[in-house]
Amino acid sequence: MQPHHDAIIIGAGAAGMFCAARAGQRGRRVLLIDHAETLGEKIRISGGGRCNFTNIHASPANFLSQNPHFCRSALARYTPGDFVKLVTAYRIGYHEKTLGQLFCDESSQQIIDMLLDECRRGKVELLHPASVVSVDKPDRFRVNTSRGEFTSDALVIATGGLSIPATGATGFGYDIAKQFDIPLVPTRAGLVPLALDAPELERYGMLSGVAFDTLAHAEPRDAKAKKQSTIVNFREAALLTHRGLSGPAVLQISSYWNAGDDVVFDLLGGRDANDWLAELRARRPVISSFAKALAEVVPQRLADAWANAHTSATARDKSLADWNKAELTSVACELNAWRLKPSGTLGYKKAEVTLGGVDTRSLSQQTMAAKSVAGLHFIGEVVDVTGWLGGYNFQWAWASAAACAESI
Ligand SMILES: Cc1cc2nc3c(=O)[nH]c(=O)nc-3n(C[C@H](O)[C@H](O)[C@H](O)COP(=O)(O)OP(=O)(O)OC[C@H]3O[C@@H](n4cnc5c(N)ncnc54)[C@H](O)[C@@H]3O)c2cc1C
């Protein structure tokens, strides 16, 4: 039997390392266990290798959860500014790329190194690679691993979600929740590209690689479902790919997308299409074709394909000034609401996050502890709190870890 610890944390990713470091620095004896050879794989690949480690605008409104207020307390107590202070203390250069997203100037590895150094300062004991064989709680927690058995007063589950299995992602956290009768919100892939069926791909698939700025949202077809759903619009770039749709706008709306929903793109970014068409028709010299006009707002290749798919041959052959009312009305609607019906997502293999997870109604929002099992905590992505694209998910990892560490 190995010595007893105040806390055992399973999962040495963003949330686990941060929680271990802070609890250790408060004088707690902490054991951090991970089955991976290399720690922080998701941090390493994040933000295209530059880790978008927070978002200065992070607020509860940027997170999806069945219990939207749950994240409020932790986010308020550990803010993006707090993490920026830490990054600054380590002299890690960073910049705001867009929309409040902070990235390392050099490499994600700097964030991993910082977290590992913080763990060293907290005298955290690291056990990896080690697989957890079983967990139980006769009186205190007993964690049986491939490298021995350990006991603790607190057990923190920080094993993340299911996305990108190649990084070591598993459903371990959900299994532990089930073992201790803690309810789960069904999981699904989020921040993930969407697939299009063959007919749509034939229409637009040859445009693979074309990006365009848009205002996008996901929308149920069924009127009743539409009334009940939250429509959130994202003004970002979308990308057509050989399998369907991607790019920041699509990844964002994928978290709100359910099977059967449409994806709706406003190609004019919110500008009324009737006004836009009227202005074009009045312009002198006359614009020779609709495709040429559309190329002022989207790339030429998309403008040509879109004009072919959405206008009649007669309309295409004449100048916009000669279009009749029916031609104008039909194209105006579609410019402001170009609808595509994805056939699915590309799944966990391509997803940045997992939606759903441990039901927050069974956790304390102050400490992340399970209400029904003393000393059992869940932090980070394993919890049903999922951020938008743009540094929000790491901010949740830091904030939930800090809340938990304070209480251990
Ligand atoms: C490609 C990609 C890019 C991303 N970019 C960003 C970004 O730029 N900004 C942002 O905010 N978010 C980003 N994310 C999301 C972000 O990485 C996650 O939300 C965040 O890492 C979650 O932290 P976590 O600690 O909860 O889980 P993780 O960081 O996934 O850590 C979980 C840890 O648990 C370990 N583990 C799993 N199962 C077991 C087990 N059975 N036994 C032992 N250990 C186990 C894993 O090895 C891992 O080390 C990105 C995600 C991906 C996939």
Could you name the key traits of this structure?
alpha+beta, FAD/NAD(P)-binding domain, Elongation Factor Tu (Ef-tu), domain 3, 7-stranded mixed beta sheet, 7-stranded antiparallel beta sheet, 15 helices, binds flavin-adenine dinucleotide
How would you characterize the overall build of this protein?
It is a single chain. This protein is an alpha+beta fold. It folds into two domains: 4-189 and 348-407, FAD/NAD(P)-binding domain (3-Layer(bba) Sandwich); 197-345, Translation factors (Elongation Factor Tu (Ef-tu), domain 3), CATH 2.40.30.10. It has 15 helices and 21 strands. The chain has helices at residues 14-25, 41-45, 72-77, 80-89, 109-121, 172-179, 198-204, 223-228, 248-254, 273-282, 290-294, 300-310, 313-317, 325-336, 392-407, and strands spanning 4-10, 30-33, 52-55, 63-64, 94-96, 101-104, 125-127, 132-136, 141-145, 148-157, 184-190, 194-195, 211-219, 234-240, 244-246, 262-266, 338-340, 344-345, 353-358, 376-378, 386-387. Strands 1, 2, 7, 8, 9, 10 and 20 form a seven-stranded mixed sheet that branches. Strands 17-16-13-14-15-12-18 form a seven-stranded antiparallel sheet. It has a three-stranded antiparallel sheet with strand order 3-6-5. Flavin-adenine dinucleotide binds at residues 10-16, 33-36, 42, 45-47, 51-52, 131-132, 158-160, 163-164, 168-170, 172, 352-353, 380-382, 391-394, 397.
